[in-house]
Design goal:
Radius of gyration: 21 Å
Order of helices and strands: HHHHHHHHHEEHHH
Mean pLDDT: 92
Number of domains: 1
Number of strands: 2
Strand order of the largest sheet: 1-2
Strand content: under 5%
Helix content: 40-55%
Length: 337
């Protein structure tokens, strides 16, 4: 439902949601069964609408826009090109559509936008001195081909019997039960993989030569989501390797790839919500991840898992949390002197 009652901005044009960020109910102790069930099956919740939508999208993509698995046993240009072309189309429509709505047509103005500052133009931080053009370049020239390469390897591996080796003794009940369980766990797998990969990218070894490119985007828009160094694309999309080890069906892997590919468009939209009608909206951007782009040394994962809280990098958006993060950084810098 819509929540515009707290659309107050500070002197710098920054807006934040009225409520502090909280972790998903599955992370609370002692357990809260009622809250957890509501979160799992309610709207909006863990399943509905986003994860269910992207699962349905993966299923339709597999059924109607993917060649027969047997025909992909041999690496051939026609089917590799087909996958690349459809993935370019998917990303262009989603990321480009959100950019047009929010930033070109200004479909909801600055309402629920984290920062009123425009996306950068004329800055030497970006290729072509234009943030959007730079982001599109890295997404389409490097990101989509990397995503497609993982998908190609997935189908080739399944077609040749290198993946999906365990069949539970031929039991269809166990096979499809495992299939459904992995679908259910895919968003959690994505969240866990993203946290540890992201922390790796913030090490001295990888931050300046690799991850800094993504952090050129202080103010974020949809095309910022997959604007990364090619090395980061390889690491980021490697989340599907978990499904290579566990999955018995290619759809599990395709769904994992789609989550990694498409979720960043919304999480980097720069808006808290996408207003569908006057009285109804959908969660759009991700204040949790927006704070990471703003402050860098916090919120490496997501609110689905408790890793940031466990490792002391959780920022819930409040002034108290910001003060705690700053004190932690001062203490760490002093210890390094």
């Amino acid at each position: 439902m819509t929540d515009t009652a707290f659309d107050d901005r500070n002197a710098r044009g920054e807006w934040r949601p009225a409520n502090a960020i909280t972790l998903a109910p599955i992370n609370t102790w002692p357990p809260r069964p009622a809250a957890t069930l509501k979160w799992l099956f309610g709207f909006p919740g863990y399943i509905w609408p986003y994860n269910a939508f992207w699962l349905g999208f993966a299923a339709l993509t597999w059924a109607f826009l993917t060649p027969d698995l047997a025909s992909m046993a041999t690496l051939e240009l026609w089917w590799v090109g087909l996958l690349l072309g459809r993935n370019v189309a998917f990303v262009t429509v989603l990321f480009g559509g959100l950019h047009l709505y929010f930033y070109v047509f200004k479909g909801q103005g600055d309402e629920l936008k984290f920062n009123a500052q425009p996306l950068s133009t004329g800055s030497r931080r970006f290729r072509f001195k234009n943030q959007v053009h730079d982001n599109m370049f890295h997404t389409l020239v490097f990101g989509v081909p990397t995503m497609t390469a993982y998908e190609v390897l997935t189908y080739w591996g399944f077609a040749n019997g290198y993946l999906g080796l365990f069949d539970f003794g031929g039991s269809q009940v166990l096979f499809w039960g495992w299939f459904v369980l992995l679908l259910f766990l895919a968003p959690i797998i994505h969240s866990l993989h993203f946290y540890f990969g992201h922390r790796l990218l913030h090490t001295k070894l990888l931050y300046k030569p690799v991850h800094a490119l993504h952090h050129h985007n202080v103010e974020i828009g949809p095309w910022s989501g997959l604007s990364m160094h090619p090395v980061e694309h390889i690491l980021y999309f490697s989340t599907v390797v978990v499904q290579w080890l566990l999955a018995l069906h290619p759809v599990n892997a395709l769904y994992q790839i789609h989550l990694a590919a498409f979720l960043p468009a919304l999480s980097h939209s720069g808006f808290q919500k996408l207003k569908v009608t006057k009285d109804f909206d959908l969660d759009g951007g991700n204040h949790f991840h927006y704070l990471h782009h703003k402050y860098f040394e916090c919120n490496y994962g997501g609110s689905l898992t408790p890793l940031d809280k466990a490792f002391g990098t959780f920022h819930d958006g409040t002034d108290e949390a910001h003060a705690a993060i700053r004190e932690r950084l001062r203490t760490r810098r002093a210890a390094l002197k």
